[in-house]
Amino acid sequence: MDGNTTLQAQHDALLLDLDGTVWEGGRAIPHAVEAINASGCKAIYITNNASRAASRVAAMLQDIGLNAAEADVLTSAQAALGLAEDVLEPGDPVLVLGAQPFKDLVRDAGYQVTDSADAAPKAVLHGHNPDTGWAELSEAALAIRTGAVYLASNMDTTLPMERGLMVGNGSMIAAVTSATGVTPRSAGKPEPAMFHQAAERFGAKSPLGIGDRLDTDLAGGVAAGMPTLHVLTGVSGPLALLQAPPQQRPTYIGEDMRALAAEPATLRPGAQGGFQARMEGDELVVDGGEEASTSVQALRTALEVAWAQPTGPRNVRAVSTEAEAALAKWW
């Protein structure tokens, strides 16, 4: 294969999600490290996880074999602090619902960090912290009810970990929103700000957004007007892709990060691997295939047809032995 025809050769920067894309609970996802190191692109890590400082994230990336510096990491806590600057003055009290690195970031920016609504905070900054409980959520609710501006690092409802999907920041936020009726403004994905900030930081002219979650990583890249690669190593699988609305649809679909070394045309939705797809009423039918065909080839074939419809298919059915084998891996 001509190296200039690969996906990685078409881009000068990779804007990489972490959980479900590069690692899972800090453990490298198979093939991710090797693919990133071999890509020849600048790797910039943009994460909705606000519980770790950028320096700590960089150290963890180094531990799994990636050449990452603190400046290569952009966290949603950093992005949320940017939003806060629009409503705060130096020295203002801020209730930070998050891990210590988030609190340190806010304090270092010149604000007074508090954990009590009695301090009359002007803003509540809400980031992920596994130690957050009823008492902390209640202080946030009290502060918001008395006028504090509510800002969130991200709205992810789940967090991919080694044992599966754990409770994410968005689920904690849902409790506060239920108690106050206030939905926070979010700094993290799917908002486009992190993508733009990351590209601007290094002067990237042709960045590629990469992630595993349609409603955050991919939606953010689409909102930023960037081409995107969806990897099937995390939250959103084939069935979610079939139902994806236009604002969440990736440009490319890869089984994992090895897709960076593939030809772009093969990664786009379209018939491949000898598969055919068609609609029969509101049912998507997949046929054909070859002995060496893969489930991802069947998926790309199906996506071209599914995404041409006004709504996602009600059901998916295989009518060949090869298609049955491919579809069995979607669930």
Give an overview of the whole structure.
The protein has helices spanning 32-38, 54-63, 76-84, 100-108, 134-145, 169-180, 193-202, 214-223, 238-242, 264-267, 295-306, 321-327, and strands at 13-16, 23-24, 27-28, 42-47, 73-75, 93-97, 112-114, 123-126, 149-152, 158-161, 164-167, 185-186, 207-211, 228-231, 252-254, 275-280, 283-288, 315-318. It has 331 residues and is of the alpha/beta class. A six-stranded parallel beta sheet has the order 5-4-1-13-14-15. The protein is globular and about 65 Å long. The model has no long low-confidence stretch (mean pLDDT 95). This is HAD-IIA family hydrolase. It comes from Corynebacterium godavarianum. InterPro entries: HAD-like_sf, HAD-SF_hydro_IIA, HAD_sf. Keywords: Hydrolase.
